[in-house]
Design goal:
The complex is a heterodimer of chains A (259) and B (471). Chain A has 259 residues and is an alpha/beta fold. Chain A has ten helices and ten strands. The chains are: A alpha/beta (259), B mainly alpha (471). The structure holds adenosine-5'-triphosphate and magnesium ion.
Chain lengths: 259, 471
């Protein structure tokens, strides 16, 4: 990859919360799978109220970064801070209880449980405090799910499963939402809907979103800021607009894409 | 978009009459009764009594009449029930179409709707039915004994089902907890003279404790690795029981364990015994029947607790754990605690069953707690369809009762000649049956998982949504 050695770090552009202490901050994180290094010292910030996107080629380590934030696998070096707390060594379930929710790669819904039960699992962190209300909300966001509340998760279509994974993550009313390729396997129209939903969640509910995407054009257009990852390193960062206009980004991730 | 499900609902409606057609129902019930009559002629109508060298045929047409009446009544009740259900489900508006997909009862729901009350009824009435069929208390000993044996395995199956079926933790050493329960009762009662009712909860607690002890080292293991470690755990417990002679009396076992009492009243012949107190003629079967109802109650308790837990967060976490451990953790579930509770609660019921075993036998030795037992219990859970309560019950009946029934297949002598001893071939037949079953239903008898929450009608959902939505 041409940008690999470039290290063209840029100053983050204007974003809703620039300047304040970030909600999530990743500093010098190195993650290994056995002896193989997957993240080679990643620095990244997500400020409250932002949508931040991470783009990169297959195998760059995007999903690894997202899972590392959740402590699975654990960072071997570096620190991850969330809302002023060091969460680097915290058990995964405790991290989740800090109102971070995740729609992981590969959906990971519970296949033999019904859609309704899957959503219940999502709400179990906050003790079902606003279950009915939240259920109604995700049903409005994803009418498809409402029709299928009693259907088994595993029998949903791929796109519906993706919707369920996102809906399940929303059920805990997270402050920070991590989405790994939410557009994967969805029809273009639905992709558009999903991105609209993310925007709404961000603007209306003030939800902070960290978004990993292959669909670089849509993601960068939506995001306040973006990072580019190449083989375990962040090589570029900037506002969505800056990255969209960057020739290297265009060459690597956007050519032949949506224009 | 909603079209496909409309076809489902319309395809369904002709199958079930929406109105209760009394004439048709009566006709069908009469037909069933007729079949029952036909079947009962060879089975029930005559009883052979031996007196010296002579065989007497005793006609029992009253029994036949009772059976036919029961079949007739049950069939009629079933019709009435189905009709009222169909009426309730009658399609109100096409906009509900999509929901009706879910209203389609699954194989499980169909089985459980009639299966559960039926099984429960039979289980409750079993000693009475046997008494009527066999025509005497002493004659029914074999069957009540078999009933107790089956129920013990039903209970063990339900206990293990929590660990294997719900939480998805393959446990090959379940018999260890059965042993802990049995030895707890045996030792506590023989050493300290504690009564069964005090020992029962203690045995449960001790077994649960050992469940946690086993749980800790295997927290990070799954699947085959977990199976191997639990297998080893089962063997360790057995070897400890054999070798710790001071405490357990080793391979010789513990004998003269106090027998069950009727809440303090012993089942003895003399003054103050059960028969004396209730003005009955003394019969050893009283104790057997009491034991039967005791194990039935314990098994039902296991079932009840499991069903309740499934609806609570901990039970749902078990199932989620079985499905996807990583997703569980990212949803904020403490998988460590979830696994340990599954091991502990499963073990606790194993412990209850164990102390029942000890009180029934009056004698225990490490022999009774070998790997074969674990294998049978696991086979019951797997055959039943992991996670299905009724499936486990059926599998226990088939697996434990089956070999006994095969013992009595003397009619095969007519086919294979009089030299044929069904007793010798029963395990072969049984194995063939198991193979057939695995081909026919590879995922167990009832493989479909029943949702822990059943949203009955669309109205119920949207109603609650609207209510909460405004608040
Ligand atoms: N469990 C694992 N064991 C060993 N290597 C792994 C494991 N998971 C990921 N990797 C490796 O780590 C690297 C980064 O993987 P990761 O899943 O983070 O990529 P990604 O950026 O999300 O890619 P994609 O866009 O295809 O999802 C890859 O080279 C991958 O092979
Ligand atoms: Mg990925």
């Amino acid at each position: 990859m041409s940008t690999a050695g470039a290290q063209t770090h840029r100053q983050p552009g204007a974003s809703p919360a620039a300047g304040r202490q970030p909600l999530l901050s990743v500093r010098g994180v190195k993650t290994y799978y056995g002896n193989i290094i997957a993240l080679k010292g990643v620095d990244m910030d997500v400020h409250e109220g932002e949508i931040v996107t991470l783009i990169g080629a297959n195998g760059a380590g995007k999903s690894t970064l997202m899972m590392t934030i959740f402590g699975n696998p654990r960072a071997r070096e570096g620190t991850i801070t969330y809302a002023g707390r060091d969460i680097t060594k915290m058990p995964t379930h405790e991290i989740a209880q800090l109102s971070i929710a995740q729609s992981p790669e590969g959906r990971r819904i519970f296949p033999r449980m019904t859609v309704y039960e899957n959503l219940q699992m999502g709400a179990s962190i906050n003790g079902f405090a606003h279950f009915d209300q939240d259920l109604e909300r995700v049903c409005t966001l994803f009418p498809r799910l409402k029709e299928r509340l009693q259907q088994r998760g595993g029998t949903l279509s791929g796109g519906e499963q993706q919707m369920l994974a996102i809906a399940r993550a929303l059920m805990s009313r997270p402050k920070l939402l991590l989405l790994d390729e939410p557009s994967l396997g969805l029809a273009p129209l639905i992709v558009k809907q999903i991105f609209t939903i993310i925007k709404e969640l961000n603007e209306q509910d003030g939800m902070t979103v960290f978004l990993v995407e292959q669909n670089a054009y849509h993601a960068l257009k939506l995001a306040h800021r973006g990072y580019v990852m190449v083989t375990g390193n962040i090589t570029m960062s900037g506002t969505g607009k800056e990255l969209l206009e960057d020739p290297q980004v265009r060459a690597a991730y956007l050519e032949g894409g949506h224009h | 978009m909603n079209a496909p499900s409309i076809t489902t609902s319309s395809a369904r409606s002709p199958a079930v009459p929406t109105r209760f057609d009394l004439a048709a129902a009566l006709k069908d019930s009469a037909k069933s009764a007729l079949i029952a009559f036909g079947l009962s002629i060879p089975i029930v109508a005559y009883r052979t009594d031996q007196s010296g060298a002579d065989l007497f045929l005793n006609p029992r047409w009253d029994m036949v009449a009772i059976f036919c009446a029961i079949v007739f009544g049950l069939r009629l009740a079933q019709h009435a029930f189905m009709a009222s259900r169909a009426a309730r489900e009658a399609v109100p508006s096409p906009t509900q179409a999509t929901e009706l997909v879910h209203a389609e009862p699954s194989a499980f729901q169909k089985a459980s709707r009639f299966g559960i009350p039926f099984f429960l009824g039979v289980a409750l009435a079993f000693p009475i039915l046997i008494y009527l069929i066999q025509g005497g208390l002493n004659e029914s000993r074999y069957w009540v004994d078999l009933g107790i044996l089956i129920l013990t395995y039903v209970m063990l199956g339900w206990g293990l089902n929590i660990v294997v079926g719900l939480a998805g933790l393959l446990d090959l050493g379940y018999v260890a907890f059965y042993a802990v329960g049995a030895y707890s009762y045996a030792l506590l009662s023989t050493t300290f003279g504690l009564s069964f009712w005090i020992c029962l909860p203690l045995a449960g607690i001790l077994a649960a404790f050992w469940g946690i002890v086993l749980g800790f080292p295997v927290l990070r293991l799954r699947g085959d690795y977990l199976a191997i470690v639990t297998l080893a755990f089962g063997e360790i417990i057995r070897l400890v029981l054999i070798n710790w002679v001071d405490l357990t009396n080793g391979g010789a076992g513990i004998s003269s364990i106090p027998r069950a009492t009727f809440f303090g009243i012993p089942f003895t012949a003399g003054e103050g015994g059960f028969a004396d107190t209730f003005g009955l003629e003394f019969n050893g079967m009283h104790r057997m029947i009491f034991l039967y109802y005791l194990i039935l109650a314990l098994a039902l308790l296991t079932n009840f607790v499991t069903m309740r837990l499934r609806k609570l967060p901990v039970g749902r976490a078990w199932e989620a754990l079985r499905e996807d451990e990583i997703a569980c953790r990212s949803l904020g579930i403490n998988t460590t605690n979830t696994k340990l509770t599954a091991f502990a609660i499963g073990a606790m019921f194993g412990g209850f069953a164990g102390s029942f075993f000890a009180v029934r036998q009056g004698f225990i030795s490490p022999e009774s707690f070998n790997f074969l037992e674990s294998a049978i219990i696991l086979a019951i859970v797997v055959m039943g369809g992991m996670g299905s309560q009724i499936g486990v019950a059926i599998a226990a009946i088939v697996l434990v009762g089956g070999p006994e029934v095969l013992r009595n297949l003397t009619f095969l002598q007519a086919v294979f000649g009089s030299g044929f001893d069904p007793n010798e071939y029963r395990l072969l037949l049984f194995g063939a049956g198991m193979v057939a079953m695995m081909v026919w239903r590879p995922r167990g008898l009832i493989s479909e998982r029943q949702p822990s929450v059943i949203l009955k009608e669309r109205k119920a959902i949207s109603g609650s949504l609207v209510k909460e939505g405004h608040g």
